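Sequence design from tokenized structure. All designs in this work follow the same two-part layout: the structure record, then the generated sequence. An example of the structure record is given first.
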């Protein structure tokens, strides 16, 4: 989607102007992976309009292959507006400190995706296929796409799924949680926020979430500023549980951090790093997003990310990252990182 960010704090009714940016869970992950040296392809649909031109161009500028993006001459590119706070996930609506979010996606080009329009060639020779629950909420045909891609078939790539529960996107809010649980059970690697699981399924804590989602080989439970817990299925059927605390971050805007975390974790997965390092790389990519106004933050170089991910627990625990830390170096950090 094209995202419109407020030029000043306040209610949508009071904000006089907005800055244009790009957004979208899957494209955010693709951009972050491409900017960290991986080969990434984005498969989607946009309108044959100026916003579609902007989206395709901006995502391609990140190094993402956009050859499989379809242009729809009859439907517009989706857009959304938001205020500066944190997006709510609970069914009780927006709290006072949460962002107002207005989606204009009904009837968009992306909402017309269907299994028949999928370019199967674009999904070949893929190590990881990353999907999110947002797509499933857009239309019945989009849900059919997700059901098709999460069906367990021989020879499929590792299927990664970020639950991304957004109450406001579901036409029937009561159906969303059930559908998301169904889709997650068909995947190999699942990301879910602890707050999302509580709001969608009334599940509390990583162990309860794992009990409800035993099928994925890897379950990543994001616990906000506390950290993340990963359940990894072993050959004997038991789980290894790994926890890594998050970084202290001077937050500019929280939107996009979940996508960035997924990109960092997937990057480390592609590099076959240990699970603990995968979580830390997720936290570092999330910190890159948290310290910029939009969805996409400049990721740290691989060398810097590896250096920070290897820090001893005491040094990791005292590190605090602020705006500019990925591009200006650790001068923007609140503490000095010991030389290695």
């Amino acid at each position: 989607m094209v995202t419109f960010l407020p030029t000043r704090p306040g209610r949508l009714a009071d904000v006089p102007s907005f800055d244009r940016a790009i957004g979208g869970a899957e494209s955010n992950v693709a951009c972050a992976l491409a900017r960290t040296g991986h080969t990434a392809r984005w498969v989607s649909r946009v309108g044959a309009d100026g916003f579609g031109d902007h989206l395709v161009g901006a995502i391609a500028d990140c190094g993402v292959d956009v050859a499989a993006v379809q242009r729809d001459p009859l439907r517009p590119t989706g857009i959304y507006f938001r205020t500066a706070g944190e997006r709510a996930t609970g069914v009780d609506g927006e709290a006072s400190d949460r962002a107002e979010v207005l989606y204009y996606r009904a009837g968009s080009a992306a909402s017309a995706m269907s299994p028949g329009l999928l370019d199967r060639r674009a999904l070949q020779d893929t190590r990881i296929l990353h999907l999110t629950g947002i797509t499933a909420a857009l239309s019945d045909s989009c849900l059919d796409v997700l059901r098709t891609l999460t069906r367990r078939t021989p020879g499929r790539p590792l299927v990664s799924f970020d639950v991304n529960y957004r109450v406001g996107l579901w036409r029937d809010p009561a159906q969303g949680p059930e559908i998301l649980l169904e889709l997650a059970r068909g995947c190999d690697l699942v990301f879910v926020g602890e707050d999302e699981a509580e709001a969608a399924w009334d599940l509390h804590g990583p162990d309860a979430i794992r009990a409800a989602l035993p099928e994925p080989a890897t379950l990543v439970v994001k616990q906000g500023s506390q950290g993340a817990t990963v359940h990894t299925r072993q050959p004997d059927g038991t789980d290894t549980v790994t926890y890594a605390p998050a970084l202290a971050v001077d937050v500019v805007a929280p939107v996009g951090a979940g996508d960035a975390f997924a990109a960092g974790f997937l990057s480390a997965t592609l590099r076959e790093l240990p699970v603990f390092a995968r979580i830390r790389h997720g936290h570092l990519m999330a910190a890159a997003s948290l310290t910029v106004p939009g969805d996409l933050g400049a990721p740290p170089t691989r060398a810097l990310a590896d250096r920070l991910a290897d820090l001893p627990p005491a040094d990791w625990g005292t590190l605090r990252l602020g705006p500019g830390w990925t591009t200006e170096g650790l001068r923007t950090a609140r503490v000095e990182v010991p030389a290695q």
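The mean pLDDT is 89. We note this feature because it recurs in several other targets discussed in the main text.
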